Amino acid sequence: MSDELQQRLDVLLYRLRTAYDGIGHSSGRPYVYFVYPPEQERAIQRLVDEQLRSDSDLTFHHLDLLPLTMQSLAGQEERRQQLLTDPLKTSSVTEAIMRLWARAVSRNITSRLEAPQPQGRHPVVALRGLAALHPLGNPTTLMEFLAEHEPRHPGTHTIVPIVLLIPGTRPPQTSRRYLFLGQERLRLDFYRGEEM
User: Fold this and answer.
1) Does an H or E element contain 31, and which?
2) Cα dist. 122→42, 78, 192 in Å?
């Protein structure tokens, strides 16, 4: 694990603890994009498990997209494959699947937030397993669709910060841009939010 990734994770935690209510004010959405090299997947997951843990100030809700995406399409694999190989329907089917996944993420987050929360703690959602979106989608598209059903804290009605752990790279001398899974052909802009 590089020192730079550790430092960025430290900055993320500091920002969540000291500026929780300010996250997303300048960008319009409380999304925090944490891009890391895909080859560091296991190390990042271990570090996230160790450091993004609930404490007296923050309550972390970790959501892995791999099982969620698989469950949402369970039993429909053959039909999905047929639709995706039809060139006339590919883009509309891809968009429909991404919307389905965004609704599943939103429902999952909402159910976690509706569960009894420790008093005085600020909830934070951490999305991992975002590689599961490929090849049908990407984190930017997911967040665009998620914004349509943005989760809110049931007690305060405030929008809850969402940390996206994105396997990819950040091109040098660019801002608000990343290469999903480190692939040049998947060069994307962040959908609002902040980058760490």
Assistant:
1) strand 31-36
2) 27, 42, 21
> Which amino acid would we find at residue 72?
S
Q: Are 40 and 1 in contact (CB under 8 A)?
A: yes
| pLDDT tens digits, 92-124 | 778 888 888 899 999 999 999 888 877 778 999
Cα 7 from Cα 11, distance rounded (Å) = 6
Q: For residue range 120-155, list pLDDT tens digits in order.
A: 789 999 999 999 998 888 999 999 998 887 777 777
Count of CA atoms in the C-beta half-sphere (13 A) of 6 = 5
Only one residue has tokens 């996250």, namely 23
Asked if 189 and 141 touch (Cβ cutoff 8 Å), the reply is no
Cα–Cα distance, 21 to 51 (Å, whole number): 21
pTM of the predicted protein model? 0.88
